[in-house]
Amino acid sequence: MWSFENSVLIALVVRFGLVLYGEWQDRAMTVPYTDVDYHVFTDAARYITQGESPYNRATYRYTPLLAWLLIPNIYILPIFGKMIFVLCDVASGYLIYKLLRLRQCPKQTAHISSLFWLFNPLPMAVSSRGNAESIMAVLVLLSLHALMTRKTKTAAFWLGLAVHMKIYPITYCVPMYMLLDSDYKCKTKLKKSKDGIKNASVYDEDKHGILVQTLWYNKSRFQFVLVASLTFAVLTALTYHWYGFKAIEETYLYHITRKDIRHNFSVYFYMLYLNAEWKYAWILGLAVFVPQLLILITTSFKYRQDIAFCCFVHTFVFVTFNKVCTSQYFLWYLCLLPLILPTLKMRIRSALFLIALWFLGQALWLQAAYFLEFEGQNTFLYIWAAGIVFFAINILILVRLFRCHLMFPMFRNEKLTTLGFNQ
Fold first, then answer.
1. What tens digit of pLDDT does each residue of 3-42 get?
2. Helix ranges restricted to H, 374-409
């Protein structure tokens, strides 16, 4: 098998090739290759160069940092942003390999696992078309890498930046906080026993038990919360200072209270569509977050010590149960999937069956969406039914992952544990 470095190089060349192909298709064909969001990003960057707010661009609902990052689109090269997204995309594959190697995963296994991202057509297409999701992938993976190397403040910084960019990584805060227990960084205290002998202990287990280990603050947890909160708060405060409440509303509040009734993969789509004009529809929009919240809290407690799997489950649940779900959201958990592949005790036949089901569910939905968008047929009910089927498939996949996953706690006695290949 060729080396991992060669895989990274080939993946990079293929993506740059797709960017160049996209430029040709945009000029030569009726259907453009470039994602409409890329034009939104570029227009927002242009407003900044003119001394105006990026939020003057309709539908720009992102942090202004993204528009600032793409200013070279205006002054240097229109595809500069795509090149950044492609580099972040490939960097994510590189980080996946490094994270697995940190857990003593064999080189070949780590290499093969990383290929599921490096040569996955979905992230390749999304980044080369000009969508910024690859930035989120690299930020999340950088946070996990810092945690694995026990750089608490660095991990908190990357997580705070990720939450500022998009709100969904905030769900990782709870399991990451719980991970920072005595096994992560043992701070012993000398405690005198009845016979006068001094014993080292982290907690008085008899008195406090597992609840203290899981929730009570320590130095690492204090640092993590402080740095992550400050990073998010400072960046958000600067956003407010530069562009006013409009920036806060578009970047964060819109995504919480949004009433997006356009067809999407969400199982809640048709319900929200039918109740769009109801005066209490906003309550319904908030209520759909309850199942998400309950599952996220439960999985945080259960899988807190296996943080890679826990973050994957969190993202999978967040996307599956969200009131809005589009194809690009799948990248949020697909970048974490290679990290858990070596810990899945699943037959290849079963894995291929689940993958086929996942694509079949999307195909059923896309067929109905095609007839609505291009043929003008009323297929809303069919779209909703296809969304329910896709939701059921995702739940089946999640249950199978729970059953097939071999949990390896990340830390024991202040040391990063292996994935058990040598045990």
1. 999 999 999 999 999 999 999 999 998 888 999 999 999 9
2. 380-404
How many alpha carbons lie under 13 Å from residue 336 in its C-beta half-sphere?
25
Note whether 235 and 247 are within 8 A (CB).
no
- The string of pLDDT tens digits covering residues 139-156 is 999 999 999 999 999 999
The C-alpha atoms of residue 328 and residue 223 are separated, in whole angstroms, by 33
HEC letters along 285-319:
HHHCHHHHHHHHHHHHHHHCCCHHHHHHHHHHHHH
Using DSSP's 3-state secondary structure scheme, residue 82 falls into helix
Cβ-based neighbours of 200, under 8 Å, separated by 6 or more: 188, 189, 190, 191
In this structure, the number of other CB atoms found within 10 A of the CB of residue 138 comes to 22
Q: What are phi and psi of 32, to 5 degrees?
A: -75, 155
Measured N-to-C along each axis, helices 289-303 and 307-320 cross at an angle, to the nearest 10 degrees, of: 170
Distance between CA atoms of 143 and 61, rounded to whole angstroms?
A: 24
Distance CA 179, CA 144 (A): 11
DSSP state of 196: S
